[in-house]
Amino acid sequence: MQFLVSVIIPVFNVQDFIEKAVRSALQQPEVAEVVVVNDGSTDNSLKILEALQEEDVRVKIHHHKNGINKGRSASRNLGISNAKSDYVAFLDADDFYLESRFENDKDIFKSDKDIDGVYNAIGAHFYRKTNKLEKEKLKLTTVNRRIKPETLFDTLLFGTNGHFSIDGLTVKKTIFDTVGYFTESLLISEDTELIFKMALKAQLKSGIINKPVAMRGVHDVNIFNREDLYKKYRVKMYESLFSWCNKNNISTKKRDKLLDKLWVLKYRQKKNLLHYIIYWTDVFFRNPKSLFSILSIKYFPIIRLRQKLFPFLYKQKQFS
Question: Model confidence at 306, in pLDDT bands (50, 70, 90)?
Fold first, then answer.
């Protein structure tokens, strides 16, 4: 399998950044095409893209039906559907790749035929004023040690050794036949969910984790500044992932760990007991595979709250 990459870039009103993003992908010798999905932009983004396409035929521009805006997930999914290469990578329109972005990935895929993807570290480029604390915090988005593929999900779920960004991920296109595409109902955290799915059902290997292969553009309108949205969609993401796990025969042990994470997020909302009973009843009725399992008992609010308050009265059930 020849190592050629389709780079997918969703675009919505990013006229100040998009040229830099596209050019950073085009400069990579392994890139066969840059699949750009114009997600209903109303600024000059499309004009810039059309000029780049005139300059380099590897730039492929796609639109949603009737030119509407459908969001990052739907745009990336359209990009995946139209990608022609055997390997796929992603780039946000306000980010950019560094030189030799795919050189090490190419070597890893060549040496290990069984893996489905390689993930790397990314850094941050500031387009606005910042401070020392923020600069240090965003200096490197990465895992801090090499992780075995079979333990990657647990490590990422609990954040014990960092995490990685989708900008630093390269995968075989066939991986989407195994895990599916992005969940289009998720406004944000859709990339995190897809990475979790890949960690559960595919073989992901660490590449360069001590220096960046790409740079995240940090500016005043970054969506990751919207903590209110992240609080809402973090919960929705774990709910969506739990449903996917039930449909894809993920082990009870993994689903238990996922529910434990979801429980903590919901508990922090400090709702009353009735709210939690209704919520968890709905979660399990929507996922019958877990409804008729020990999980529905363990996470029933009255039992779960007693476990939290009186842990010495309960022995932790181990699942396989």
Answer: low
Alpha helices by DSSP H, 159-251: 175-179, 190-201, 227-247
In the chain, the amino acid numbered 177 is D
Confidence class for position 309, pLDDT limits 50, 70, 90: very low
The pLDDT of residue 203 is 98
Q: Give the C-alpha separation, 172 to 85, whole Å.
A: 9
- Contact between 8 and 83 under an 8 Å Cβ cutoff? The reply is yes
Q: What SS3 class is residue 38?
A: strand
Q: Quick check: 188 and 65 in contact, CB under 8 A?
A: no
Angle at 239 between CA 225 and CA 94, to 5 degrees: 30
> Is it the case that residue 308 has pLDDT exceeding 50?
yes
Quick one: which of 294, 287, 288 has its CA closest to 315? Answer: 294
Residue 163 in tokens: 């995490």
Do the bridges between strand 117-119 and strand 204-206 make them parallel or antiparallel, or are there none, so unpaired?
parallel
Average pLDDT over residues 110-128: 96
CB 251 within 8 A of CB 319: yes
Element (H, E) at 19: helix 18-26
| Among 54, 24, 55, 53, CA closest to 38 | 53
Q: What pLDDT, in 10s, does the model give residues 256-276?
A: 999 999 999 988 888 888 999
SS3 216: strand
pTM listed for this prediction = 0.92
Helix (H, G, I), strand (E, B) or coil at 31: strand
Cβ contact 147:206 at 8 Å? yes
**Encoded tokens for 136:** 């240090």
Distance CA 89, CA 213 (A): 12
Say how far apart CA 212 and CA 42 lie, in whole Å.
32
